[in-house]
Amino acid sequence: MARTVVVSGGGTGIGRAVAARFAAGGDRVVVIGRRADVLSRAADGIGATALPADLGDPAGAERVRAELADRFGTVDVLVNNAGGNVGTGDGAADGLTDTARRWAGDFRANVLTSVLPTEALRDLFTPSARIVFVSSIAAYRGSGGGSYGPMKAALHPYIYDLAADLGPRGITVNAVAPGLIDGTEFFGGALDDERHAALVAQTRTGRAGTPGDVAEAVHWLASPGAGHVTAQIVQVNGGAENGR
Questions:
Q1: Which keywords does the record carry (predicted)?
Q2: For residue range 52-67, what is the model confidence (pLDDT) as tens digits?
Q3: CA 129, CA 102: separation in Å to the nearest integer?
């Protein structure tokens, strides 16, 4: 039976691959993102529904909840993939004002875009619904300075608490934590060949990950077979960071 699957940040990279994986399995997929044109192209390409919105804004999350309730009634799977690194490629922060801008921006981009839709959709989740967050290897080892890693790490205790809260309803809550993934907009062109080679060398598989690698892990966590897996952070990084 087709499920209603909602994927934030579904217009490009990991989010698009995740949405495509669910759509290929026959699910009804809704992709959410801020860039309406990018989102529309992605949705058309994979047979999904585009719902443009800024999930870092409470009003945006509330509008998404209202539209999903009106169109589908319930939600079976929520993938909180929206995020990004506000300071990528900008160099060192220029004083406290710039530092505050970057930290606040990463909080909005990575924490609020996950927390607000999750809280907004609480009453729409079906029994045995699946919630999957996209974290990062940076949550374990830092991001080389700045606020991206700390913001991803902030999601982990929220995931644990949410799993305990929603578990009695049969709902599981997990995350995947990717390492280096080629084919995304994350680095914004700021990753040079030398740094890329160094990150690949940290893996046990000798290669960068792909959006499809992450999509398969997310799809499994949302499957009936993963019904007893909850409050877990599944690392998808080729062994660049050991399991903890």
A1: NADP, Oxidoreductase
A2: 999 999 999 999 999 9
A3: 34
Q: Could you tell me the sign of the dihedral formed by the alpha carbons of 238, 241, 242, 243, in that order?
A: negative
Neighbours of 3 (CB within 10 A): 20
Is 216 a domain residue? yes
DSSP class of residue 97? H
Domain-located, residue 244? no
Please choose, from the candidates 210, 168, 192, 211, the residue with its C-alpha nearest in 3D space to the C-alpha of residue 89: 192
In a domain, 137, yes or no: yes
Cα distances (angstroms) measured from residue 194 to each of 89, 92, 147, 219: 16, 20, 23, 32
What's the mean pLDDT in 116-142?
97
Its domain, for residue 67, covers 4-236
Average pLDDT, the chain: 93
CATH of the domain at 16: 3.40.50.720
| Of the candidates 33, 144, 32, the residue with the CA atom closest to the CA atom of residue 88 | 144
Enzyme catalytic residues: 148
Instruction: Determine the pLDDT at residue 189.
Output: 58
Evaluate whether residue 242 is within a structural domain: no
End-to-end CA distance of the chain: 36
Instruction: Name 29's Cβ contacts closer than 8 Å, sequence gap at least 6.
Output: 5, 6, 7, 10, 19, 22, 23, 46, 47, 48, 49
Task: Domain count for the chain, please give it.
Answer: 1
pLDDT value, residue 141: 92
pLDDT, tens digit (0-9, with 9 covering 90-100), for 155-187 = 999 999 999 999 999 999 999 999 999 988 776
